[in-house]
Structures are given as structure tokens and as C-alpha cells.
Amino acid sequence: MKLAILNALPGPYIFEGEPSDGEKFVRLFGAIDPAITCQIYDATAGELPDTPAVADAFLITGSPAGVYDGEPWIAPLEEFVRQAYAGQKKLVGICFGHQLLAQALGGRVEKSEKGWVLGLRSFEIQHQADWLTPAASRCSLYFVNQDQVVALPPGAAVIGGNDFCPYTIYALKNQVLGIQAHIEQSRRFMRLVIDYLEPRAPAALRAEAHRSLEQALPDDRLVARWVVNFLMSFDDQIR
């Protein structure tokens, strides 16, 4: 499995001592399945593969940008997503990537009127697929977002969500997987980003988000295992 990671986080947003998000995914997936080889592209600098044929699958990372912002690198990334989808390539999106996949394939993304989702949050697994193993009915992951997918692409199904973020995980057949939450970030990163959001996120919300980090651990390795299973799977059924 050759995975191309389309990094959507600009370098200036990387905290001192933190690797890039692309590097975090390389380490994460390498620890789960060494058969996955990765190549990182800097999508924010306009660096994209010449053709979807260069890889078996593509992953789009998180970003401080909104998919509707009009940044010059976003439209070419959306077009590449559509080309890869037409070429039957696997596509995975995390946070911003989850939103961009939805928008590129006919869904809709908006700044949520509910405000920030921040810290460790739980959600229910609502539908099952063969790649969701080991099975779980409830998960907790780190969230950092104001924007949300409010309409799924045609044919997509909700895999998991909660009242605040109904489309936390969605899948389109066995080709597209979107995850609003983060599987690649550490507790250290979350502490840094929560503080970085002052004063954009309310103080009470940031304090509660900090508390959530100390109350439990995320199910990041479980969901990362699901992503690897998804990349390697061929069954297109969601039940």
C-alpha cells in the first residue's frame, strides 16, 4: 500500500518541537502496518502529485484554513480529490481533510452555529463495516474545529457521531473515509493548541477542554487501526 499524504497544515502553524502533521501520520501508520509506505506533499505550497496514479490512496490532513476560505491552494486540492475519486483511489480526510472531501464530492461545510468542538469528546458508532475491527460502540478522540460538514456527499453514510458533531465519521462506499476528529495528535499538542486559541475560543470552553484531556485517553490507536483496515479493505458494504 502506497499512501500519499497531502499536508494541509502550513509550516508556521507547527509548534516548536512538534513534527509536521504529515510526519505524524507516517509514524502512526508505520507503527500499525509497516507495509504502508508514505510520501508527503505540501498541498499548501501547491505541491500535489502529477497524477493519482502515483499512489494507492491519499490522506488529507487537518488545517487552520476553512475549505470555503478561497485560499489559492484549496481549489486545486479539491480538483485533485475529484480526479482521484474518479480514478477509484482510496481517500481519507482528517478534520479539514474530512471537510474538504465532503465539499469536493458534493457535500456542504459551514462554520457551525454551535461553536467550537474542543478537547476530548466521545461519540457513538452508528453503523458497522467489516473494517471496523476491533469493534467498538463508542469512541473518544481529540477535536479542534469550528467548521462542520452539514450535508454529506451523495451516497455517503454516517459511521459515527454525537449531537454536537453528527457527522464525526462518514464513509462513501469503500472508497472515501472522513474523520472530523484527530487520530494523529498528542496530548501535548492539544494543550498547546487550546492555549493558542486564546482569545478566539471562550475561556470557559478552553478550561473545560483542558480538563477533558486529563480525564481519559483518546481511542486514537483503535481508530487509526480502522483507517488502516479501510485502506486495505475491498468490501464496499456498510451495514
Write the layout of secondary structure elements.
Layout (H helix, E strand, L loop, with lengths): L1 E6 L13 H12 L4 E6 L14 E4 L13 H13 L3 E5 L1 H9 L3 E4 L5 E9 L12 E8 L1 E5 L4 E6 L7 E4 L3 E4 L7 H10 L6 H13 L4 H13 L7
Parallel strand pairs: 1-2, 1-3, 3-4, 4-11
Antiparallel strand pairs: 5-8, 6-7, 6-9, 9-10, 10-11
Helix pairs in contact: 2-3, 4-5
- CATH class, anyone? Alpha Beta
What kind of sheet is the major sheet? 9 strands, mixed
Give the N-to-C terminal Cα separation.
26 Å
CATH-level-2 architecture: 3-Layer(aba) Sandwich
Mean pLDDT: 96
Please describe what this structure looks like.
With 239 residues, this protein is an alpha/beta fold. The chain has one domain (2-232): Class I glutamine amidotransferase (GATase) domain (Rossmann fold, 3-Layer(aba) Sandwich), CATH 3.40.50. It contains 6 helices and 11 strands. The strands form 2 sheets. The chain has a 9-stranded mixed beta sheet with strand order 2-1-3-4-11-10-9-6-7, with helices on both faces. A two-stranded antiparallel ribbon has the order 5-8. Strand 3, helix 2 (74-86) and strand 4 (90-94) form a beta-alpha-beta unit. Helix 2 crosses helix 3 and helix 4 packs antiparallel against helix 5 (203-215). The chain is globular. The model has no long low-confidence stretch (mean pLDDT 96).
Question: What's the quick description here?
Answer:
With 239 residues, the chain is an alpha/beta fold. The protein has one domain: 3-Layer(aba) Sandwich (Rossmann fold), CATH 3.40.50.
List keywords for this structure.
239 residues; alpha/beta; Rossmann fold; 9-stranded mixed β-sheet; two-stranded antiparallel ribbon; 6 helices; 11 strands; 29% helix; 26% strand
